[in-house]
Design a protein that fits this description.
- The protein has about 240 residues and is mainly alpha-helical.
- It contains eleven helices and five strands; from the N terminus they run E-H-E-H-H-H-H-H-H-H-E-H-H-E-E-H.
- The chain has a three-stranded antiparallel beta sheet. A two-stranded parallel sheet has the order 1-2.
- Helix 4 runs parallel beside helix 6 and helix 9 crosses helix 10.
- The longest helix is centred in the C-terminal third of the chain and has 14 residues.
- InterPro entries: Apaf_helical, Disease_R_plants, NB-ARC, P-loop_NTPase, WH-like_DNA-bd_sf, WHD_DRP.
- One of its GO terms (molecular function) is ADP binding.
- It holds the Pfam family WHD_DRP.
- Keywords: Plant defense, Repeat.
Length: about 240
């Protein structure tokens, strides 16, 4: 057999799964992915097992990702924002989700140093691949984006917790559900157009992402990143 087990969070989960796949020297392989170093090490119980740790983005790629999201150009940044941008990127620790989340938040802010400094201060100590094993620092960054959402977008985002994790959600179906639930209101134009605007805004803020579906050439689908999904589940329980 050849298995890929994605996103393992607890050593106990791995121990439970591993017991179902005995090693009988017939060439079977298991690949497990996790964000937590301790879990990764527990997956490597045999001498032949290998641990591969994904490296963070380097400074050049981090800047490209950051500036492209904000300015639509990989190497374009006003001189007055260069210093604060560098400090924000250091706090993102080369983690792509953190960079995209903060950049999406800044893309809706005025491009002045004082505004960016306030955001830089609110990030706190920042994160790194090594220090954020439990995801708390990343959750803090995601919360910054969540609290920056207008009230109606918060409601629309939290509604996504009704779907299973990693579900591919029909954008068309989702918009009509928002309308049916009474989340969408407008003083002019149609409710559908307003729902479309809400959907686009959540995509632009990187709270949801458009995904390809090989079975559908016309209908668009969206998906919630698993860490964003964990966040909205916890917020919905509060």
């Amino acid at each position: 057999y050849f298995l890929v087990i994605d996103d393992v969070w607890k050593k106990q989960d791995w121990d439970f799964l591993r017991a179902a796949f005995p090693d009988n020297n017939n060439g079977s392989r298991i690949i497990a992915t996790t964000r937590i170093i301790k879990v990764a090490k527990s997956c490597c119980s045999n001498s032949g097992d290998q641990l591969y740790q994904m490296p963070p983005l380097n400074d050049v790629d981090s800047r490209r990702l950051f500036f492209n999201r904000i300015f639509n150009l990989e190497n374009s940044c006003p001189p007055q924002l260069e210093d604060v941008s560098a400090r924000i990127l250091r706090k993102c620790g080369g983690v792509p989700l953190a960079i995209i989340t903060i950049a999406s938040l800044l893309s809706h802010k005025p491009q002045n140093p004082a505004e960016w400094e306030r955001l830089q201060d609110s990030i706190g100590a920042g994160l790194s691949y090594e220090s954020d094993g439990d995801g708390k620092d990343m959750r803090h960054i995601l919360l910054l984006s969540y609290w920056d959402l207008p009230h109606h977008l918060k409601t629309c985002l939290l509604y996504l917790c009704i779907y299973p994790e990693d579900a591919k959600i029909s954008c068309e179906e989702l918009k009509w559900k928002w309308i049916a639930e009474g989340f969408i209101a407008t003083k002019w134009g149609s409710l559908y157009q307003e729902a479309e605007s809400c959907s686009n805004e959540l995509v632009n803020r990187s709270m949801i992402q458009i995904v390809d579906d090989v079975d559908s050439f016309e209908e668009k689908y969206c998906q919630v990143h698993d860490m964003v999904f964990d966040l909205i589940i916890s917020l919905s329980d509060e």
